[in-house]
Amino acid sequence: MTEATSLPPLRPGSYAFFFDLDGTLAEIKPQPEQVVIPQTVRHRLGQLARLCDGAVALISGRSMAELDRLAAPLHLPLAGVHGAERRDISGKVLRVNLAPTLVEQLSRYLVEELSVFPGARLEIKGMAFALHYRQAPQHASAIIQLANRLVAQHDGLSLQPGKSVVEIKPAGISKGSAIAAFMHEAPFAGRRPVFLGDDLTDEAGFDIVNELNGVSIKIGAGESRAQQRLQDVQAVYHWLEQTTYQLEQELNRLPLRRAGNESFNRGI
Ligand SMILES: [Mg+2]
């Protein structure tokens, strides 16, 4: 793996960008609701989206409602809850749902089971459940075992480990499948995907990006199947600025392409 201080030269019109949010575009905080994407970074993302005809999407474990709140005023294509929900560039939303009775049953069970671990927090995302133990690290293995037991009992569920969290999500969905779906659609199709992420859930995204001859970038330490690495969130900000600048310079050198790009106006 190489340090991604600079990517190979970007060709105009040829890249699609996918970003994880927590730990990639925003510093991780003790509580998920304290997380913010700095205004300058949101501005830069909007600029990047304009430079590549809107081929910029957020791919996160958070719900799409939260992603919209954190990225505002941007209104980007999104994959939320590790790909269980997705919004394409036209605004069409696709969701993988669990049966409401199952959601109710699991919610009740998890509320009760987690109540014996002080500091643990259950986040119910509609079609997925996040068992957070950042404030209860001494109970991590018991909580992971609880999630494992539950997934073993239900065919339609799978486990998604993360940083201080273990999630129970519908089987068959991943950040990889979300990126693959975007890559079949305009304006992503035909471009080379670039994906930046920091956590275990991002590995499925790195796999598909590697398969598609794209650029996979792991943020921070830890083993990864990504090709390149950036040290931390601050390095992502620097990379984003550098990449946007580089794309803009390339486009400025192509007057025809530039004229075409200016017609792109989706209010991103
Ligand atoms: Mg992350």
Automatic annotation (TrEMBL):
SUPFAM superfamilies: HAD-like. One of its GO terms (molecular function) is trehalose-phosphatase activity. It catalyses: alpha,alpha-trehalose 6-phosphate + H2O = alpha,alpha-trehalose + phosphate. Belongs to the trehalose phosphatase family. CDD domains: HAD_TPP. It comes from the Bacteria. This is Trehalose 6-phosphate phosphatase. It is an enzyme of class 3 (hydrolase). One of its GO terms (biological process) is trehalose biosynthetic process. Keywords: Hydrolase, Magnesium, Metal-binding.
